[in-house]
Amino acid sequence: MAVDCGVFVDWSQMGDVSRDTAPGKIDYKDLKELKQHARSGQWAKNHSQRSAVYQQLLKALPCRTVTPDAAVYRDIVGNSNSKRNPSAYPLPEFVDGTAVPCYCLKAESVGSVHAVLSCIAGQFPDISHCPSLPAVTALLLHWSADEAQCFESVSRMLACNEPGCRLLDQTFLAYQSACMTFGDLVHKYCPAAHKLMVATATDVLEVYSDWQRWVLGDLPFSFAARVMDVYLVEGYKVLYRVALAILKFYRKQRTAAGLALTKQDSAAVRSDIQAFVQNIGKSVTPDKLLEKAFSIRLFSRKEITLLQLANEKSLQQKGITVKQKRQNVQLAVNADNFSSEIVSAKEIRDIWSWIPERFALCQPQLLFTTSTHGCSLNRFYSHCEGYEPTLMLIRTTDGEVCGAFLSTDWEEWKRGGNKLSFFGTGECFLFRMKPEMERYEWVVIKHPELANAAQSTDDEQTGANDNGAPQSLEKPATDPSHLSPFLSARHFNLNSRNTSMFMAGNVDSIIIGGGEGNALYIDSELNHGRTERCLTFDNPPLCAESFQIALLEVWGFKDAMAS
């Protein structure tokens, strides 16, 4: 190329990456080929090719009518490629103290990143929280001819206005809800890693709040560049995938090392994960990381959008606004205010670690207990209706403890008259605490093939991106008032209704989990119960198959989001 897009790079650190080779293919008409080349690292060894492809991808982003470009930067800052003093361009407050990663740049190029970020702060006054921006800017500087071009590239990512295509979180509200969404995805897709986090960290969400930094900041340059290839093609959801893969590899390393599962301060766990990510090249290649990331069958773009919006809404109800700069969000159960006759404060914290993040913001509120309200299904309904979600705890006369997280208001039972009809969503789950702790989620989460691979058809045949980026032919709705609940069965092309029988009730009994059996059946006197395997949760019996109830409690979620 006539324009040198490697002037900021320390080529002594770039290994076998070619600086001068002709760019090769840069004009992609076939979206599947573009995605395949991005995932396979087609541009990894050719600096000029990657630069040209990036510029095409960024120029194709639909942006706001008034989006600052390279000319704006030259007018404000100038366009010197000479050494800049970083101290002359303090990092904006919205990066929250995040340093600029070196990423094989020349030492003096860090000053250029500072200058670009300083100009971004002036041109985008609405950005209140964006800690990943230093890493994104440093990466894009690699493939920019000058600072002005880098500024324009970053501006286009920030100004992208394609519905459903969010490339960068720009407020604390969006950032924190993304952290909560990542936590929800870890629950679903990395249960073993989540179990490790619960066992070792005092505050799991604090650990998960680093997820973006793992990907954009801590990964070595050769990994981060490969992630950027796919990120610009497929969008934000790629970051979730890579972070989940990192957590899976971290857990694998911890298990192989045989390290003891001792509870420690969250800061120590965060430092341990950071050190692992920074040195990930010792055990994993970029190809292996991306292979693992894309082997995870995430929910559809619509489901992720629903979850993100639900988490944002719950944070807004906690008083966090779009203009909020930072606020500590406490998700831990307050042991001083918790008193159950069935589980201890430690056990409720373990249960809370399984609950969707937007409800874990709330404190438990006792709605019904047989020890106070008596053994009556009518009184159960009268005390529990109007609350969503709820948590049911059962202790049998043999001392076994089990229960269920139930996503939907029990008042729904009335819609079927006295006929048992099932309701609820895929966020419902069963668990047992004694004799050993175990959770049983909706069977479709672990076996997505039961939903006819509807997501695969949507993503692959339409050429759509993971998060509805510009190549997508389908734009997900983003108006919360028109969104149905997250993991509603109607979002999935289920092979059998037996896999979506979550909860049901009438005047004679309540049932949780159906399909060739009931996970929990409780009679009208709340005295006798049965448990067996059901298709909806693919669970074993939660306790003795026929049991007597010693105590039953139902807990609500104080200040929980209205449905």
TrEMBL record:
Which topology term describes how it sits in the membrane?
Answer: Peripheral membrane protein
Stretches for region Disordered: 454-481
Which keywords label this protein?
Cytoplasmic vesicle, Membrane, Synapse
Gene Ontology cellular component terms for the protein in this record: cytoplasmic vesicle membrane; endomembrane system; synapse
> Which segment of the chain is annotated as a signal peptide?
none
Pinpoint the TLDc domain residues: 341-558
Location within or outside the cell = Cytoplasmic vesicle membrane; Endomembrane system; Synapse
Which SUPFAM superfamilies does the record associate with it?
Answer: Ypt/Rab-GAP domain of gyp1p (SSF47923)
User: What InterPro entries does the record point to?
Assistant: Rab-GAP-TBC_dom, Rab-GAP_TBC_sf, TLDc_dom
Q: Which Pfam families match?
A: RabGAP-TBC, TLD
Instruction: Report the main location listed first in the record.
Output: membrane
What does the UniProt function comment say about this protein? May act as a GTPase-activating protein for Rab family protein(s). Involved in neuronal projections development, probably through a negative modulation of ARF6 function. Involved in the regulation of synaptic vesicle trafficking.
Q: How does it assemble?
A: Interacts with ARF6.
**What protein name is recorded for this chain?**
TBC1 domain family member 24
Name the species this protein comes from. Answer: Sinocyclocheilus anshuiensis
* Gene name in the database record: tbc1d24
